[in-house]
Structures are given as structure tokens and as C-alpha cells.
Specification:
Layout lengths: L1 E9 L2 H12 L3 E11 L4 E11 L14
Antiparallel strand pairs: 1-3, 2-3
Length: 67
Amino acid sequence: MKLYRFLSEDDTSAFCHKVTDALNKGWALHGDPTYAFDAANGVMRCGQAVVKEVEGTYTRDVKLGEQ
């Protein structure tokens, strides 16, 4: 099955670490990163979609962060 996650974080090194961690767990980048101003919190936020192919059948119970 193919899994999809959208990672987001404030524009700090924490975002890069989050994406790097996913890549090292076998996830692959999917599309371009995004960058937007979060007016509610007054910060820039980054986002990146990632995908991963794994064994099994998808259900809503799949813990994407644990894959």
C-alpha cells in the first residue's frame, strides 16, 4: 500500500529535522515544499508531502507516523 503524510512545522531547523527523520525512515519527498505565513501565530510555516510504499492493506487505523 502507498502511504501519504504532510509534514509541517514553523520555519526553523525543527522542520528540516522532521523531514530528514522521515527520509531516513524510508519516506520519499512528494511534490514541492510549501511556505506560508501563519497570521494567527505570526510565524512562517513550512510543509512537505512524503509518501512510502509498505506491505499490507490500508485502513484508517494505520499509524502513519510509526511507519
